[in-house]
Structures are given as C-alpha cells and as structure tokens.
Amino acid sequence: MDAIVDVSNVVLKTERLILRAWQESDRNDFFEYASVEGVGEMAGWKHHTTMEETQKILNSFIAGKNVFAIVYRDNNKVIGSLGLHTSWANQEKEYENLKTKDVGYVLSKDYWGRGLIPEAVRALIDYCFSECGIELLTCGHFETNLQSKRVIEKCGFQFKKKSQYCAEQLQQNYVYLEYVLLPSSLPA
Questions:
Q1: Per-residue DSSP letters for 12-59?
Q2: Where are the beta strands (DSSP E) in 64-131?
Q3: How much of the chain is in helix, strand and coil states, percent to nearest 5?
Q4: Are the CB atoms for 156 and 121 separated by under 8 Å?
Q5: Which residues does the chain have with pLDDT short of 70?
Q6: d(CA 126, CA 185)
Q7: Burial track 38-60 (b if 16+ CB lie within 10 A, e otherwise)
Q8: Pair 70, 82: CB distance under 8 Å
Q9: Hey, what domains does the chain have and what are their CATH numbers?
Q10: What confidence tens digit (pLDDT) does each residue in 104-129 have?
Q11: 3 state DSSP class of 123
Q12: Which end of the chain is more exposed for a tag (fewer CB within 10 A), N or C?
C-alpha cells in the first residue's frame, strides 16, 4: 500500500549534502542542471528547454511534498532531486500489505561520479525506515543506465524483476530493472 510521506518540513543532512523541500528560489539551479541534455533522459524525461517548463515542475515538486532538493553543502547549490513516489510493488501480491515508496533521483551532470547519490539515498533510506514507518522501498533503472545500477546496488537494494517502461516524453520503451529493499535487508 502506498505510504503517505510529506517532506515539506524535513531536512536531512549528510557529510556533503542537505536534503530539503524545494523552494521558489531554487528555480535557476533546477533549470541549470535539468536543461543539460542527457540528465533527464537517464530518468525518462526530456531535458528542460524553457524556464517556464522548469517552473511548472518546480511547482509540482512543492505542491506534491514528496521530492527533496539535493543541496551541495560546499556551495549551497541545488544539484539534484530525490523523490518518494508510488511504487510498482503496490500491485504485487507479495508486497500489497506493506507500506511502500519508490525512490527516484536525478543529479547534475557536473556532480556525477562523486558518490553523492548513494550518500543521499542512504540518508533517505534511514529516514524512511526509522521515521516514516515505510516497510518496503523500491527503486529501478533503465537497463542501459549502469550508473544508477551501481547506486542501487551500493545502497543494498536487491534485484527483483525486469519490466517494460514507456517513457512517454521520450517516445521510447525501455527494459526497466526493478529492485526492493526491506529494513531486514540492511546491514546491522
């Protein structure tokens, strides 16, 4: 079952990052990374081409209260997003009675390869299991997105199945690999 999580008043801190609710003042930082070709496409959406498009999505993040802005502490710049979405596991008999959320993330290309997303996802995992009563987290990636595969595996998710994903904005179908994480799977 889909768990309700409101991140609008939550701040999570890691060594290099602050995860917090999106703010109107984040629009320029958001556009800066979301307008780079290849960033959104790794997650199934077309890179932004106008500030109006960015504003519309920023408004949905603020209203939805389920997506964190990832802020890099060294420069106080928003460099990505980390969201908690409705999970595919809600449709699976095995998981239908568990409180679930699906983890999704995007990071500015300028910050790739530094281990920042695993750092952010680990903080989110801890928050979900210890503070929100989440009983199952899911995550996934396109078969060709090996960077996300590494993040997901580093964070302890276990491969569950392959499916098909239709990225409507890109007008393309992908093989999508889906993973699960239970609190009992975490290292002690």
A1: EE-SSEEEEE--GGGHHHHHHHHTSTTTGGGGTSPPP-SHHHHHHHHH
A2: 67-72, 77-85, 100-107
A3: 35, 30, 35
A4: no
A5: 166-167, 169-170, 187-188
A6: 12
A7: ebbbbbbbeebeeeeebeebbee
A8: yes
A9: 11-134 (3.40.630.30)
A10: 999 999 999 999 999 999 999 999 99
A11: helix
A12: C
Amino acid at the residue 96: E
Burial, 162: exposed, middle or buried (Cβ in 10 Å; 0-12, 13-18, 19+)? exposed
Q: Is the pTM of this model over 0.90?
A: yes
With contact defined as beta carbons under 8 Å apart, do 15 and 67 qualify? Answer: no
Asked whether 69 and 115 are in contact (CB, 8 A), the reply is no
pLDDT at 166: 67
CB atoms within 10 A of CB 36: 15
Q: Is 134 helix (H, G, I), strand (E, B) or coil?
A: coil
What residues have CB less than 8 Å from 58, skipping those under 6 apart? 22, 24, 26, 27, 30
